[in-house]
Amino acid sequence: MSLKSQDLTWDIRPLVRRLGKPPEQWQRSDLLEFCLADGIQVVNFHYTSFDGKLRELRLPVNDRAYLERILSGGERVDGSSLFPGLFPTGESDLYAVPVYRWAFLNPFASDELDIVCRFVDHRGQPCVGTPDNVVVAAAERLRSATDLELDALAELEFYLILERSDDRFTGKSQRNYHQSAPYLHGHAVADEILRVASAVTGKVKYCHSEVGYIDRLESEEPELDGRRVEQYELEFDLMPVEDLACWLAVVRWLVRVIADRHGASVTFVPKLDQGMAGSGLHLHLALERDGQNIMRDPAGELSRESLRLIGGLLGQAAPLTAFGNTVAASYLRLVPGQEAPTSVCWGERNRTSLIRVPLDFATEERLDQVTNPDEAGDYPESIGRTTVEYRSPDGSAFSQLLLAAVTLCIEAGLSSAESEDLARRLEVSGGSEEVPEAAESLEQLPASAVEAARSLREHRGFFEDRGISTRLIDLVVGKLEGESDEGLNARLKALPAGERLKASRRLMHKDVHKH
Predict the structure, then answer these.
(1) In the chain, is it the N or the C terminus that has fewer CB atoms within a 10 Å radius of its CB?
(2) DSSP notation for 468-495
(3) What is the distance between the alpha carbons of residues 145 and 166, in angstroms, rounded to a whole number?
(4) What's the DSSP call for residue 427?
(5) DSSP single-letter state for residue 515
(6) pLDDT in tens, 480-496
(7) Helix, strand, coil tally for the chain in percent (to 5)
(8) Rounded to the nearest 5°, which phi and psi values hold at 116?
């Protein structure tokens, strides 16, 4: 038995242990025989629509022949209903075809198997217009052009919306970071989210409470008004970017289902109340060659590839917000003084910049011996993993399109020496507010969804030339322009304080379940 096979006995995913091989090796016959042997009664096909929400088609396991047929050819779906405006009505029929490595045991029903699908057109080719295939094509483009692999992880932040059953152990506003029970009222919900997301994906690093806490939220929305809300973050581990696109949608679905099962609710909106922490969707990115992280050179400095990755993102920072910050409330989060970026710059360990390089565990001395001086065991060789963190996106993102666009920017950056020069010019050592002479010369991120749409219009050729279709660009632009929020911050500031607060809340809460 190989070391890899031995390691599978410790894999947290039940289906991996049951099949005895890693997901990338799964064949149709593996899933077929498992379903028949283990009494699977229903196979659920999942796929995402334009809003990024996970959709579902439930298929009964009638007999072996039917099961083999659906696992082989998938099933027909209506693309015009899933992606309004993307397909002409006469060309909207699609196949939803399962991706075997994206199968998992349904955590809520022991006799159901769930599989995430990709869309295939009438010719039997990946449907080039759908976001799932756009991100896969972008990853393949980068791989082919650079011989590098792009791995990514996401920090998924959200607010749990909880009934206020009593006044015991109330928290303090903006003081909930890494809080524990009994001051953490959603602890049971968060604990189940952690356990289920880990068992489904095998790629969760942790789940913890975040800064945001509102003891009694005021809102015109009945689902929110009077509720206690607590902010949480679930962070994935690094994985291929196309796999992150899959599991990010699945976990957002799981978070909602689990909250509902506990009588709670959840929202991924970028901002929930004035002066309170916003919810981001930070992406961490890493390049690999032959399975080795190449983000630092032998001297411990950021590698040329890392600088070009950074430069590629900085060069398209403004139009990228159209994919990652899609509602008016996004631009109430991207304001100075909120640990959210406003300027196009980067810096190591700088939480106010658009891009930063966080601590990577690659220290000169062993960390374990700092606190355990007598520790004599070997130190893991792979403990240090450098990533670059892209900090502007939030929970309103068109997540598949965002990951595709980020990948395309990185691929362009890696092939251009100019991107390395750009990165060197835009490095700042501290927060931009601490170096006003630099801040004055820095390009600013869009201040509204309408401004982000305008930037995407101006730069659409960059993305269209690299595989994001004209129709998709038009849909994104149209949705952002529909926010009609240009000059919003100035209009809000002109209102009396009470009216400003009501208007801000109305704006934030209108999208409670939009994405």
Answers:
(1) N
(2) --HHHHHHHHHHHHTT--TTHHHHHHTS
(3) 59
(4) B
(5) -
(6) 999 999 999 899 999 99
(7) 40, 20, 40
(8) -85, 140
pLDDT of 2 above 50: no
Contact 57, 44 (CB under 8 A): yes
Say whether pLDDT at 5 is over 60.
no
Where helices occur in 234-288 by DSSP H, the ranges are 241-261
Token pair, residue 133, equals 């295939």
Residue 69, both tokens: 């047929």
Rounded to an integer, what distance in angstroms lies between the CA atom of residue 93 and that of residue 42? Answer: 24
DSSP tag of 126 = B
% of the chain at pLDDT higher than 90: 86
Q: Evaluate whether 181 touches 209 at the Cβ level (below 8 Å).
A: no
Give the closest residue to 344 by CA, choosing from 447, 476, 490, 483. Answer: 447
Grouping H, G, I as helix, E, B as strand and the rest as coil, residue 283 is strand
User: Among the listed ranges 9-13, 19-23, 328-332, 454-458, which one has the minimum average pLDDT value?
Assistant: 9-13
Q: Are 408 and 320 in contact (CB under 8 A)?
A: no
More confident residue, 340 or 273: 273
| Residues in CB range of 511: below 8 A, 6 or more apart | 269, 327, 329, 396
CA dist 431 → 343, 441, 446 (Å): 10, 14, 19
**212 is written with which tokens?**
């945001």
DSSP code, position 124: S
What would the two tokens of residue 41 be?
């009664």
Local structure of 399: helix, strand or coil? helix
Rounded mean pLDDT of 500-508? 93
**Alpha-helix runs per DSSP H in 180-221:** 187-201
Which residues, listed in sequence order, are joined to residue 346 by a DSSP beta bridge? 355, 427
* Three-state secondary-structure class, residue 259: helix
Residue 165: what pLDDT?
A: 87
* Cα radius of gyration (the chain): 23
Quote the tokens at residue 84. 């309004």
The CA distance from 67 to 117, in Å, is 15
Buried b / exposed e over 287-297, threshold 16 CB at 10 Å, is bbeeeebbbbe
